[in-house]
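Why do we care about 3D structure at all? Because function follows from shape, and shape follows, mostly, from sequence. That is the central idea of this module. The next example makes it concrete: a single protein chain, its amino acid sequence, and then its structure expressed as tokens.
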Amino acid sequence: MPEPEIPDEYLGDYARILGEVAATGRRLTRDELENRRALGRKAAEAGFQLRALVGLHLAATRTAWPSADATDPATTDCVLAAVEQCVDAFAEGFERAQRLTVRREEAARREFIDDLLYGRSDLGRLAERATRFGMRLSRAHAVAVAAGPQAYTESDTVPRQVESALLARFDGREFLLTTKDGRLVCIAPGSQPDVLRYFAKQAHAATDGGRVAVGRPHRGPGGVVQSYDEALVALDLAERMRLDDPVLYAADLLVYPVLTRDRQAMADLVRSQLGPLQQARGGAEPLLKTLSAYFDAGCVAAETARRLALSVRALTYRLERVHQLTGSDPSDPMHRYTLQTAVIGARLLDWPAREL
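And the structure:
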């Protein structure tokens, strides 16, 4: 599309200034420079491009170039100096206005994301504001959260690096990226899971192996909050369960919230099934670690021994000790499920480090 025509009002008294400079050799006054800055701010607010505005000034320079003494080097030097002053002041005002606009847009975007993630503000008003950022809250959205070895702010290198990678591959209106509580947060339509997958890949690399959790897609303004909470819960579960996966999906971890929904019942199970392990030499932790590795290895003794850097004989002794203390045999399918559920509950409740 052709650029819109720029009205001559953005030139102000440019022609008069050049004429007086050619006649007297003077420089621009302070008021004239401030007037040029004001015109630049006004042009920026009107949405014109700086390149076109500079072109307008150059075209006006050719038109208004003084014919008298045109070949006089001194006159030429004075006029060109005035042109430089005029354009420089105009561009300064233009750039100031643009920076102010960017800061306002960034503040509005940040406020919107905060309200979205915490479920604040009127839902109707929130949905109206969402359209400004390319979101339709009537549709499903999902949230991914990345946690690295340190806390991040939006001005840090890592968030900028991840945002640049996303912008190089996706339209900027297909996602919202911010930092919250030191973590990177990305919101994307539920119909475009590739956005969050790519975010997870880039965030994992940029945070030196940090972990990323992705919530499930949910509809409506409250759906974003729900997906965000699921991602945070997934990160917490990964920490407590010592999961090694760099990318976690809340949909794959639903069993853990179910197990802890009745905290008292889970605590009773852990106490009854694993409490006797505290009688072992060195406490319950070594045998609890053995059980966890055994179940993670699919109850294969040789693989478990390899993971724990034990001999198979030493592993067998530990499993027999568990049987002696608890009365449950880890190798017996009838006992295995109860023991494994209790081991998961112990990790979720941080037992035995924390009293139940």
